[in-house]
Amino acid sequence: MLRLPEYRYHQPRALAEALSLLVEHQGDVMPVAGGTDLIPNMKHRLFEPGHLVALKRVEELKGIHEENGHLRLGATETLTDVAESRVVRGCFPALAEAAGHVAGPQLRNMATIGGNLCLETRCTYYNQTAFWRQALGYCLKKDGSICHVTKVGRKCVAAHSADTPPVLAVLDAVAVLEGPQGRREVPVGDFFVADGIANTRREPGELVTEIRVPLGPRTRRAAYAKLRQRNSIDFPLLTVAVSADMDRDLTVHELKGVVTGLGARPRELAGWSEIARGHVLDDDLIDALAERALAQCHPLENMIVDPEWRRAMVPVYIRKALRRLF
User: Fold this and answer.
1) Helices (H), 204-325
2) Is the pLDDT of residue 1 over 90?
3) Is the pTM of this model over 0.70?
4) Average pLDDT across the chain, whole number
5) Beta strands of the chain (E only): which ranges?
6) CATH of range 220-324; options 3.30.559.30, 3.60.160.10, 3.30.390.50, 1.10.730.10
7) Helix pair 283-296, 307-324: axis angle to 10 deg
8) Does 274 score more than 80 pLDDT?
């Protein structure tokens, strides 16, 4: 049986109290909302904090509503709440779909949108028990000095495997963070860095408090597609999110695509608007965009399936997502 390490559990009821606890116990503390990712990782001894600061009772972190031309998502709203919200489904159906495809219903009832944004990177050589990792000599991400994927020790390439961030990125969403230095906003497209060990721009003691999605023009459409081994519970092997500003005749003004599951951060596909702008989104254009994406995507052996097969699926799922824009 995998047991949790010892820790002290704090239940603040206000954001200021939560932030104070994170500062007080800095270096030996982690925030927890749904805990669907953190708790298993603690059982595997990937994290052993002496303090956990629970966020579910903090009222400032709740709520889904329109506000000042944005859709505001409180960070501790569950993925079920996001997936089933009439406001989200009406404004951003692709985001509701992405939230509704995370894991299974039991986990979605606990997991939060803020937690999904900050989801820990994953790797075949990392997400294992302490006994398994010790037998291999650990890895660069935890307790070791070498990456077993690249065979060198300079950079961790654990994969970003969250469903909602690529959709939030193509919708130009902004993450609102609060910490010891005050409040700041970071576009979700810039929130991640190419470091499998710590792949977000959150500073020590900072919390994501809300996510703000601009309502944008009514001509904008977005779509989402996900590749996984089992369609019920698995983490994505590839996630594709696309958005387009189009006329009624499907003439493209702007087009954006983001993929994740291939590296330590979601990747925006370069050159799409230049290819598509002024053209009708037909099969020929979709094929050109899919081939452009294939040239940019090179999965690593950081997941349990063959990377060449995952790469071959890139244009397949790009086409699926783009056709859903119709």
Assistant:
1) 272-276, 283-296, 307-324
2) no
3) yes
4) 95
5) 8-10, 29-32, 51-54, 64-67, 70-74, 174-179, 182-187, 207-214, 220-227, 238-246, 252-260, 267-268
6) 3.30.390.50
7) 150
8) yes
- What is the full DSSP assignment across 73-121? EETT-BHHHHHH-HHHHHH-HHHHHHHHTSS-HHHHTT-BHHHHHTPPP
Percentage with pLDDT > 70 across the chain: 100
> What radius of gyration do the chain's Cα atoms show?
20
Residue where the block lists tokens 């982690």: 30
Strand 51-54 and strand 29-32: the pairing is: parallel
For 251, counting Cβ atoms within 10 Å of its Cβ (0-12 exposed, 13-18 middle, 19+ buried), the class is middle
Give me the residue spans of the domains in the chain. Answer: 220-324
Give the pairing of strands 8-10 and 51-54: parallel
